[in-house]
Structure formats: structure tokens, C-alpha cells
Amino acid sequence: MPQAFTIVVSIAAILLIGNLLIVSHELGHYAAARSVGLVAERFTIGFGPNLVRVTDRRGTVWSLCALPLGGFVSFAGERDRLRPGGYAALPPPARLGIIAAGPIANVIVAIGLYAGILAAKGETTLLPVASIVMSGSAAAAAGIQPGDRIEAFDGKHIATFAELSPLLRDRPGQQVVLEILRGSRAMQVQTRLEARPADGRTIGFLGIESQALGHQSLTPLQIAVYAPARAWDVTTETVSGVATAVTTGKGASHFAGMLGVAHIAGEAAASGTIQLLALTAVLSINLALMNLLPIPVLDGGAFLFCLVEWVRGRPAPVQVQDFATGTGLATIAGLFVLSTVHDLAGLGLFQWIASF
User: What pTM does this model have?
Assistant: First the structure.
């Protein structure tokens, strides 16, 4: 029963996350198209028979289908340059903006999710707690014990270990006053910091290490800075990881296909809302990066074709576009098969079959 429940949770989680990210991606294309006066023909969520079908006053058909697996937005005249008001009749810069808006929307979603996580949870940080007191150190001489929390340094309130460290480094060999909290008891101690050489200069050394994690509340301004920074960190780490895997083969085992992502999503959902939101943010950035690959049928391929058209003054021949589209579909299908085999191997399916 627990195993069956885990499978149900995994399926529900990946469907929820996948549809959220794909719909936001397509809404990015839609919003950019509307900004240049282009009307969408269809905006469809899922595939298969329509459960709900509504036509708005602009003529766009909005559909919710029975199979909640992705979605798409389509525009009139996508390949007909002679159709007035159609997609292909737009100037290349406008089309480039529409194409790029999908991945940009995914990045915005990720930033929004990180902002929500930071607002709810704050920033994980090391607390100014003496988890380890080094023998013979200035901290030991002052009577500081493991578990003591440093509340103030020479009258300056300390909230995190990161705030304490630079104050210590700047006072080599000097007498300092520390206000500490031992359980519920507050006390004040004095000690002379050691002077140690480091990076070509002399720094102050107290002799404690912190292993205590806590959460620091952030201001709206800090959230506005930290959320995009966290999204950027995930982006650069992902690109670096892919580049390393492609060039050296190292870390390739860490990549996951749909089955692997579903398994991870189930674990995140079981762990709590924050973990699920964090995973959704990571997957949103990954979806943006994947769509930027220069493969036809993905946004990156469409962007490349449009850019070439802008430079040449005319689109690539239809035969070239059709061949590239077929090649792109074959590439995506091949990657899907390989990732699925990789996931099944990681889940132990082939070992289970071999055991018979």
C-alpha cells in the first residue's frame, strides 16, 4: 500500500508540475503575441477529447482536454508570409520576441517561486553557535562551551555566523567582549583573539566552528535581490553540469528523464510544500534551457531559423525547414528513449528482469 501510494503521489506531482510549467511557458508566447497584435487561434491544455472548449471575443479557442499532458498555443499563418495579420507576416524581431517569451516566462516563474520560498522560510544560514570549541583557543580560554550562542560582539548584535566572522578577522590580538546565551542564561565574557596569518595578512581567530543551521527572515528588497540570484545560480550550475557531462562524461548518471523526474517529484511532494516548490523552480529553469537548444521543434530551433531569415532577408526553403523539423523530432524522440532507459535502469528494472 505505501508503495502504491508513492506511485500515485509521484504521478500526481509530475502532472501538476509539468502542466504548470508548460502552461506558463505557452502563456509567455501568448502574451508576447498579444503585445504585437497577433491573435492566437488555439490555446490548448492537454491532449485528446475536449472537456471544456470556449471561444473568446478575439476568436481564440481555449480548450481543456482529457489527457493532462502538456499543451500548446497556435497562431494563424505560422508558415504563410502572405497572410495578413498572420504569424509569418510579422517582422523577424517581433517573432523573435514571441519565441523567446516562452523560456523567459519559465524563468519568471522560477524567480517567483524562489521569492515565495524566501518570503515563507527565509534564508538558510549558519547561526553564531559554538558547535565546536577548539582546545587551547581564545574561545576555550574565555570559558565558551559547545552549544553557547554568541548574541553580541563588543555591543554589536549578531544574528548569523557570517556576521561574526568578519568582525573576528578584523581584530587580531585584541581584547573583545562577547555576550553569549547558554540555554536560557545570558552572560558576558572577555577574551583576547589569537592573531593568525591568512592570505597574506593577519586575522583574528576565536577558535569555534558552527554547525547550527537556522533561517533568517528577509526584507522585500533582499527577496527581490536573492530570488533572481538563486535562479541564476541554478541556471549556471545546470549549464555547467551539462557541459561537463557532454565533454567528460562525468555526472551523466545524475540526469533524469520523465520517470526519474516523476520519482523525484513524488519524494519532494512527500517532503513538504517548500521542497515541492523548490523542485518546481529548478524544473522551470531546466524547461527554459531545454527549449533554448538549437533543435527544430524547440524554441531554440525556431529562434535560429528566424534569426537566419532576418540576416538573409528571406526564410529558409520549405524543404530545409521540413527536413530540420523531422530531424528535430527524431532527436527529441531519441533523447526521450535514452532517458527512459536510463531511468528504468536506475530504478532497477533490468536487474529485476535478470534475476528471473
Answer: 0.74
